[in-house]
Amino acid sequence: MLRISARQIDIGLDILRRKQLVINNAFRKSGCKTIHGVANIGFRPTVGGEKLLLEVHLLDFEQDIYSERLLVEFRRRIRGEVRFDSFDALKAQIAEDVVDARRWLLEEHPL
To answer: Cα(97)–Cα(24) distance, rounded to whole angstroms?
Structure first.
């Protein structure tokens, strides 16, 4: 099981049309704590997505924040969007992406 929280945000801005996976920081409007994460900007082709979304996976965070506003800061590109053959393959790649993101955050940009 992946111990990350995900939040999907409907977007339509031209600046975000480049489909990619990035390391991000998220900031809650109700607090100033930085929450590291991994974000996907794209259509989610593995699950048949048709709308461009920003999907933010918050690391080591398990609170219900669906009614809160977030400020998301993009830190580093990981890879482009990929269509996987199965949901299991997608989950395995997300796990690898999270490991890569954690490594980069610890080595290069700790809180």
So the answer is: 12
Which residue type sits at 73? E
Contacts of 40 (CB under 8 A, 6+ apart): 20, 21, 53, 54, 55, 57, 81
Average pLDDT on 96-109 reads 87
In the numeric block, which tokens belong to residue 18?
């480049």
Question: Residue 55: which of 18, 86, 79, 21 has the closest Cα?
Answer: 21
User: Alpha-carbon dihedral of residues 72, 73, 79, 84, nearest 10 degrees?
Assistant: -10
pTM: 0.70
- Residue 96 CA to residue 29 CA, distance in Å, equals 30
One-letter identity of residue 43: F
Beta-bridge mates of residue 25: 36, 73
Which of 7, 1, 2, 4 lies closest to 61, judged by CA?
4
